[in-house]
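sorry to bug you again but im stuck and you know this stuff better than me. what follows is a protein written twice so to speak, once as letters and once as structure tokens for the fold. id like you to explain what the token line says about the fold, in plain words if possible. anything you notice is useful, everything is just below.
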Amino acid sequence: MEKRGSRESLSRFRVLNTGISAVTLRGAVSTISGWTASRQREYVNVCNADVVLQAYDDPRLAEIINTSGMAVPDGMPLVWMGRWRGLPVGRVYGPDLMLALCEQGLQAGWTHYFYGGTPEVLEALTRKLTGRCPGLQIAGSWAPPFRPLTPGEEADVEARINAAHPDVVWVGIGTPKQDFWMARFRPRLAAPVLIAVGAAFNFHAGHIHQAPRWMMWCGLEWLFRLAMEPARLWRRYLIGIPRFVWLVARQSFGSHAREKSA
């Protein structure tokens, strides 16, 4: 994994074995803008409770997130945990981050590359984003096969993206696949910033409906998504949420007990 010792560390707070960046959407956009301007090569993980649980079960994923430029709090439970600790944390929702950076990049002349989805999703994504952000510069896109790439295909992806000279590479192939992809390709790509945004491609393309904002801010987005895709998401939410609450409560109780005994 590429080492970036010169990077100034951002403040983080611990959730299980994952360090979540104490940022807001505005702060995340500002930080990424700085990286792009200085050509500092970083990657960004967009984290929710499910991502934290996966990192808890897989130390390799935890290491990738913990050594990223930022691990932004996409889920409200993470935001609440940061605020409970007195930190200035706001939700950095993947689709909102994507739109905000597309708008920010218009003035700076950034170019964007989309990696993930299907050809139909990428076509709709390009159409919708250029409609919302006239003048948006898209350097290229590619829908990879739904299987591990061969060494030859990885070399082709590297050459394809580097030849396009993007400023931001958006990766939408699902967690943890997209996180491992960024860690593997970060040393190989010249683009300053790689950002894994999960389902944001499908949301912006209009292939998946987003929850109403009030449900998002109340932490009920999971209920909306479960109703939309029960067969795919029931395990994540009906098993994952209680497990996350239990593990976090156990961690918090353990920390409190150690503080009292100190």
